[in-house]
UniProtKB/TrEMBL annotation, chains A, B, C, D, E, F:
Lineage: Bacteria, Bacillati, Bacillota, Tissierellia, Tissierellales
Name of this protein: Asp/Glu/hydantoin racemase
Keyword Transmembrane annotated: yes
Spans traversing the lipid bilayer: 194-213
Record keyword Cell cycle present: no
Source organism of this protein record: Paratissierella segnis
Domain of life of the organism encoding this protein: Bacteria
InterPro entries recorded: Asp/Glu/hydantoin_racemase, Hydantoin_racemase-like, Iso_Racemase_Enz_sf
Family stated for the protein in its record: Belongs to the HyuE racemase family.
Recorded GO MF terms: amino-acid racemase activity
Keywords: Membrane, Transmembrane, Transmembrane helix
Length: 226, 226, 226, 226, 226, 226
């Protein structure tokens, strides 16, 4: 089995981190490659960023569909996910959707760690679209300053701890792809499940391939151009 | 005041119809132009169609922002509306959003006339996103056949009548832009309000300009690239 | 075109302010008159106040229906709005409904400026009735003391600022009619849209008249006495 | 203990039926009187009817508050119930609210028997306001014709049976006050609970008096005129 | 009429308190007995506690069904209530369901007094199941420490007062059965309705018996083993 | 890795079918055993059936926790799932929850194939509890007669086809565990994803083990007895 993880942004470093984490998780049971969306911006924050990921994502899916068994879209805002599910006959799994739905099975409410409050409205719309608004404890903004750094684990842990203690959160979801190496340590410190989206999406993607399942093509995701 | 109506698809004929209807509605009190999104497909049905409207819509907004006071996106599925609100400092009004919100002020429940059932899931997500799901009586599919034609008024009227009689609908929303000329006649026959989206969007757009209102740029629609 | 704005309370001063603001907004493009509901109390806060506005509102609508093209009910709690929509064949627009629905088009969430917390429960029911509860950021109570004064702009601005910064609000709705002159200055200071209900209701009312639209009379608002 | 049942309409015959049913139910354990709202219309269907019940309901509550321990508003659309709860320090129980909330304890979903479809939109708003929309199986319209007659039990039973068999209803709520004598026979035939609103409201009203409970006066129902 | 109150836990002292309160409330108009669920744990907090109440509750209902007219399950988390409604042909009323539904008739929002935050998630699910989430102001945790004591009235009153002042609560629901003697004093101090669940359940249970109503056996609560 | 699938009912035949399907799916990559809940009834339909599965499920979890890495509860009504998540420190996955959440990722709406309408109310509560009510197209009752047989594939296919064509369903969920062998053939005929719950639960369970994730023990599922 071969899974392609698509990093919707153009940050090559992040692609490498995601690929390494994913291969660690896969343990050689299936092949995993991670590809950068070179024509996209380096970060995905705004609607414009989401729009700019589109041409590259579409191109990658179209070119790679026949070489892989399933695809993971490795950005927690699930950019263009509906489009990619429509374009592709094989499973396409969003990091946001997979992690939020698995989070809702592990505890009463989850909090999503965010890099800034700019992304909260759109993330809330996503949670609502997935039917999980009553499972949302809070958005835990790790840092509002410009110099925020996803590598700054102390800040992440502080924000998560506050969510657990004050917002009644029981599960932490990392609101950015490619943090798989951090999740483990955070979980040890916080004593609650800490979910990395790419891991969650791999669980679903690999499972769907094994089960012979894919996106329904009967109506919403039916492609008229194929 | 100058309003630019953007037809997200590339159907020049529809652009002309929309422009004529809009100018009839404007009665010379403000200028209205209608522009075709030339790089887009001729119809907007699938997520891929929506994606293909994006580059052209973005380009038009960016080029025309300084020449017009407000913009109307003339497709009832509000393609890329969040993006365009973010990109533009002036009011951008979607035909879907405007017509559904006005419809909810005129009666208990509305039905949306649809050309086929392919578009229902995405339209339902839109209604839900706008908070209006409890005001939705039904989707009235005018025709499922390939040969459907928005000019076929008898079919539209039949579908609308069924919605009023059987689905408890009180207001009819035309689920496609550029039908302003039909709304009047349908209303006479059906004795309930029949809403053309472009007309509704013009009401809001012109009103916002006069009131000095536009999209809030404080968080969700804040553009980081400007 | 002639629009009648009905001030549901008996405060003549407020009527004059509303009329002046409305005429400024209309810029002579249509006629606007504002009438006081003389048999009502001076403020509308309680359910009893709402009840006491009823006989006068009904009388005004019945007497004036033939002389005007549309009616605006200029109190943000939309007192007796369902009744007036039923009684009248011409458009009747509530200041609350119009401002909340337009607010939801301009940003992710809105806050409503309130004079006291007594009115919050009923306002929440209104927001819920209009399907907009997920667009509500907060009720921003400008002042709980007895000496509250809608002219006290500093207090309004402070309450609005807190809503934007702490409650994630993106749009401010003035929860009282007749503040049109304040909205502009607040908007300049706050850098988010500040909505005056009467302005919003005029946008809708004028638009409906131009489009030949009015309340559906097919079921919910069908009058059996006409 | 003395309970006053207020018939919001002016139909003396209905008042007598309600009083007789209520006294049969009370079995002399407490006193029950039923009073007619003489200035109201004979039926309560439209928003105008509801408005016309207001002055009389208010007058009755104000005059009788000191002589009775609790009040039942005997019309299933709960006309002016919020107002009466605000005006009165003693318990005021609506026939609609009491019957719907009790119905939701007795089965998965209930259907409401209606005399015509004109009242469905407003009844739906009521069910929604009471938080019970997910417990609503259907509105069972007993008869749409003009000659409908609540005495026509066969028609009621037919409509209820259809609701149970086709709409998955498990409990029947009679959508009109004063049918207490019919509920028993319907229940025998249908083998599901059939709820008479006045009976349900008496259960709540008598219970509240015994428990020393009444409407909270802290905010929503606080009267500023007392 | 004979009502059996079942204390789902094995705390004999609580059973005695509940029985005494209930008989005080009944004033001899009907018989009330209270029985202890001897095989259950002394407190009901966890899902395991709820499970351990099950065999005893089932046995009591099966043995006592023929001797009593209705049953009250005297624990505010309504343990196994659906099961007991299914098993029994006579009315079975949960203290949680009855108190929350009556609370929603007496004010805009209620707060539930809780002994610890461990029980909040499950209580929230209950409120949601009963359709009352929009009537929930807050969970007011009286004490998180191990030494919490329901007899510690000062703590209860403090928690309730905070809920009224800060969470916009208008009605207080005691989240534990057998506090009937406290409710009265709290109500005097707080000036809002304070609801004891057993009292509320008795109101409903006695009323259902008098009205000849019981659980619908048509589908959800149909017992296949009888 | 070792997964234990627990068949909550006492039907040994079904246990064998489930085990065979599961091992086929596992392909030897991990060990799967399936155990029968011997003290339970042969079918799980009523609340009483669910209660009777409890002691055995609890005993199995307690005895087997140390020998397995994760547990699957193989009944589509997720009997006692909250309890088992609380009791066990290792992942416990319900067949209902896993299949419904995965279904919601594969299409707009799903239908659940049911053996009779008796189980619909409780299944609806489950869907609502999981936040997926807006993804539910319909319950497709395959057969209401007594002689229903899950082996009767023609009936299943007919019911599913009707759901796709008439209820706008896009994904089929088999509402009973142990049908893994049928899903494949149904999918071929229906051309939409057909989900077997056990397969879905295995996907999640195996994934959680690999990712080092399990139920959050911070509040809702915290066991006080361990």
């Amino acid at each position: 089995m071969k899974i392609l993880i698509i990093n919707p942004n153009s940050d090559e470093e992040m692609t490498k981190v995601i690929e390494r984490n994913a291969r660690n998780f896969a343990k050689g049971e299936y092949e995993v490659d991670c590809i950068t969306n070179e024509t996209a911006p380096a970060f995905v924050t705004t609607y414009n960023d989401i729009a700019e990921t589109m041409p590259g994502l579409k191109k990658i899916i179209e070119e790679k569909e026949k070489y892989y068994d399933a695809f993971v879209i490795a950005c927690h805002s699930d950019p263009n996910l509906d489009l990619l599910k429509e374009l592709c006959d094989k499973p396409v799994v969003g990091v946001g959707e997979a992690s939020l739905k698995i989070a809702s099975m592990l505890g009463h409410k989850f909090s999503i760690i965010m890099a800034s409050d700019k992304g909260i409205p759109n993330k809330e719309l996503l949670v609502r679209k997935y039917g999980l608004i009553s499972s949302l404890a809070s958005f835990a903004v790790a840092n509002n300053g410009e110099g925020f750094n996803w590598q700054d684990q102390d800040n992440l842990i502080l924000a998560a701890k506050k969510a657990i203690d004050e917002d009644m959160s029981e599960v932490i979801v990392l609101g950015c792809a490619g943090m798989g190496h951090v999740a483990g340590r955070m979980q040890e410190i916080l004593h609650v499940p800490v979910l990395d989206g790419v891991t969650c999406a791999l669980i679903i993607a690999v499972g769907l391939v094994k089960a012979g399942l894919s996106t329904s093509k009967v109506r919403r995701f039916k492609s008229l151009s194929k």
